[in-house]
Amino acid sequence: MIEFHYRLTQFFNMNLSRNFTLSELIKSDTAIRKGINNNPNAEQIEKLKALCENILQPVRDHFGRVKVTSGFRSVDLCVAIGSSPNSQHAKAEAADFECIGVDNAELFDWIKSNLEPDQLILEFYTPGEPNSGWIHASWVEGTPRASYLHAYKSEGKTKYKPIIGKAVDLV
């Protein structure tokens, strides 16, 4: 039993990159509360490593602390929270995050200019309110879509519009 606990601890403390652990990318209060297995398989762990190495770690290196609010979500967890089971979170390709003390539009613009995300979404950001919203970024091997969007609510529904220039210029 002690050996099993040791291996389980090693699994959750596994480094995905220099500053990110598996436990950070799979943490979910909803999964814990509802008893949902939110553990990725070996292929998904490799995708999470690529996400950390290509998106999250460079952001951390530039801005400092990165607060991941949602990383990997199992299909069951996606269903439980009303997200799509086809979400890039369920494929271990996306994370939602922010950097404390950094305007999310500024963070978006830096990622867009310096990294190669598959999809980058400035979610529920209100211009003039630097702490509003968060960043959704995904990374895939090969050719990224280079999709840059602003997600917002209109008439109770989530809508998306492309961000052509800089996010800091949103009005």
What topology does this entry show?
Layout: H1 2-12, H2 22-26, H3 29-34, H4 42-63, E1 67-70, H5 75-81, E2 94-98, H6 104-114, E3 119-123, E4 134-138, E5 147-154, E6 157-162
Parallel strand pairs: 3-5
Antiparallel strand pairs: 1-2, 2-4, 3-4, 5-6
- Structural class, from helix and strand content? alpha+beta
What is the end-to-end distance? Answer: 58 Å
How would you sum up the major sheet? Answer: 6 strands, mixed
**Proper CATH architecture:** 2-Layer Sandwich
- The stretches of 5 or more residues where confidence is low (pLDDT under 50) are 4-9
CA-based shape: globular
Give the amount of beta strand, in percent: 15-25%
Helix content: 25-40%
Please list the strands of the largest sheet in the order they lie side by side: 1-2-4-3-5-6
Q: How many helical stretches?
A: 6
Residue-averaged pLDDT, rounded?
Answer: 92
What's the β-strand tally?
6
